[in-house]
Amino acid sequence: xxxxxxxxxxxxxxxxxxxxxxxxxxxxxxxxxxxxxxxxxxxxxxxxxxxxxxxxxxxxxxxxxxxxxxxxxxxxxxxxxxxxxxxxxxxxxxxxxxxxxxxxxxxxxxxxxxxxxxxxxxxxxxxxxxxxxxxxxxxxxxxxxxxxxxxxxxxxxxxxxxxxxxxxxxxxxxxxxxxxxxxxxxxxxxxxxxxxxxxxxxxxxxxxxxxxxxxxxxxxxxxxxxxxxxxxxxxxxxxxxxxxxxxxxxxxxxxxxxxxxxxxxxxxxxxxxxxxxxxxxxxxxxxxxxxxxxxxxxxxxxxxxxxxxxxxxxxxxxxxxxxxxxxxxxxxxxxxxxxxxxxxxxxxxxxxxxxxxxxxxxxxxxxxxxxxxxxxxxxxxxxxxxxxxxxxxxxxxxxxxxxxxxxxxxxxxxxxxxxxxxxxxxxxxxxxxxxxxxxxxxxxxxxxxxxxxxxxxxxxxxxxxxxxxxxxxxxxxxxxxxxx
Length: 484
Description:
Helices cover 45% and strands 12% of the residues. By secondary structure, the protein is of the alpha/beta class.
């Protein structure tokens, strides 16, 4: 039976009662209070083996109280709970030295399990503290799906592990990477981002590792790579699934050995960067098709974070809309708001472009419509071209959806791709990059359909058998014949 004395502080008597009963059943002794001052008195007197406290109480704020408690009792584990449920709440809890942050409502079994882990951990294993005072909220949303993301990020702030962010296009993978940098150990160093899908294949190694003068045609001077530019900080490798196999091999060597050489160089250069990678692909499928190195995947996937698509967190849409309207107002556009029926339309929409698509919609609404209040017909008119069919205000989210054509899917993808460059345009060579991106899944699908029979796959694709074999070698694809 577990033992320990738990101090609980919450101004809600019902919550205090529920927590008291759950922890008493688990074998703990419990004291409860609704006042921050009482909690401080108990802690200062040396009472309690663990604290569970709400953030906001009638006579104070737990975030002001935590540093005081930590000064007199640095090893005392503190669990912070809050109904505010924002990213900054989780980060502040971590910065003030909380052992764990729990958004309300929470599962009582999970709380009891956390209490058990906190009381059984070795003494002196208290989380480290940070003094950053962030100004802007980098991530918006209070949904359960985002709470899981916030808690994972809060745990990662004091440590320096490699992170792999997985999510669909437009879910905010770079925002998460920047949050990891801005509130983590390396916040005083540079944050350098590189999009693998936007760099021509033959330039990726030069972009990453730099090159020496004369290393190749056009290399008129020495150029530093992204690893050198990110020294002491964070290197964000976006769309890592699009990295060519040759560059994957060099990146793996850097992660293993902690050093690299420039293109055309001979002297190894030590590197000290934190790697955060991101992809919108299932890299395990890419590994199965021979398009991504399994050993590199395990080097990068030390801490995986999944960003949910917007359709899985529709309860966050109102907060996101208000956030984006406030952003565009700061940029000089008129103040806008959206009525409840229009908000219902937004909740029913599938959001193939995720949060980025919602932000673009809000910007259009603010720029193009003179009305202060945006109504449902306006939103439906703006979403209709993207959905391909009129949206009915009373339509159900469970209604059958029209199958998207390949042409429509490619057009949507390209729209998001170009949108990611803002006022700029992508690097030259887009036509061949797109073809190289389409070829592997097309050939893989044909091989899968013919169970690895290259003769039948070539016939299916309308290619000469030797041409197909050449492409399989060039793409370094593994072909496995399987019986019917």
